[in-house]
């Protein structure tokens, strides 16, 4: 499959991924010591919801748009909506902030973001979208190589966000191997790995490989808006966390039923598991 960010910005998968991302960032800020974030596949930083890509695949209309303006949602979702409102201060949903923009807005003075994007055109857009700051470092490089080169961070603690486009058939297995190698260098770090929910057996095998490489405490959350199938349109996604922050499991138990209900396009559902 091809999951280039611009075609899917603001869809159900982004809702899950970015709500969890923000919870992780807030958890890191509970301690005063600085942290680093590595975003291995950053995309362009911000997405114009009136662009040609968004118009060709307007998945945001059944994602973020269904939550926009609502105030009776669980705290995990409310925090996420507040962050998206930050990119749309007049209250009109025109721009969707990608992961590097959401991370940037969450950084304190001593915290650092390393955002990597390999596609040349997307990297140029990322440079234009992001503010010029000493604690935001942009890299036009392969995200898998970045995992080897940029870990462990000098800050000693932090978050690794892994969200590849899944353009290659073996990218799920490649992700699992890369995370396993990263754990040898940064075992105590927090990892957030996004995956398309297509094949339960493939995800289970990838998860088992990561655990075999030394991941001790893990949390997985799946959300689907219709029955997932191995082929066809993406209707579900999964996040797999290593060293998840305290309180996230409880926050997801409250948020996922509401998201499944609000975003449903058929037989929607969710799943949470931890080790």
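^ structure tokens above, recovered residues below v
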């Amino acid at each position: 499959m091809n999951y280039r960010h611009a075609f899917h910005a603001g869809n159900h998968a982004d809702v899950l991924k970015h709500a969890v991302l923000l919870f992780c960032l807030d958890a890191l800020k509970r301690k005063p010591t600085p942290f680093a974030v590595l975003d291995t596949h950053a995309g362009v930083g911000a997405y114009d919801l009136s662009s040609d890509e968004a118009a060709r695949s307007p998945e945001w209309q059944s994602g973020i748009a269904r939550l926009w303006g609502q105030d009776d949602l669980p705290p995990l979702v409310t925090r996420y909506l507040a962050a998206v409102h930050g990119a749309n201060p007049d209250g009109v949903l025109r721009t969707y902030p990608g992961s590097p923009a959401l991370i940037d807005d969450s950084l304190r003075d001593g915290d650092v973001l390393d955002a990597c994007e390999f596609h040349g055109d997307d990297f140029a857009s990322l440079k234009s979208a992001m503010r010029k700051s000493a604690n935001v470092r942009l890299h036009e490089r392969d995200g898998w190589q970045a995992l080897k080169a940029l870990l462990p961070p000098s800050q000693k603690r932090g978050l690794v966000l892994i969200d590849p486009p899944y353009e290659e058939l073996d990218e799920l297995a490649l992700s699992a191997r890369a995370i396993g190698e990263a754990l040898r260098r940064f075992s105590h770090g927090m990892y957030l790995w996004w995956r398309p929910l297509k094949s339960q057996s493939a995800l289970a095998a990838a998860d088992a490989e990561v655990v075999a490489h030394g991941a001790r405490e893990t949390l997985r959350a799946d959300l689907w808006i219709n029955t997932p199938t191995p082929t066809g349109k993406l209707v579900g996604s999964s996040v797999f966390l290593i060293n998840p922050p305290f309180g996230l499991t409880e926050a997801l138990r409250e948020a996922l039923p509401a998201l499944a209900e609000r975003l449903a396009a058929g037989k929607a559902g969710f799943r949470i598991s931890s080790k």
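The radius of gyration is 17 Å.
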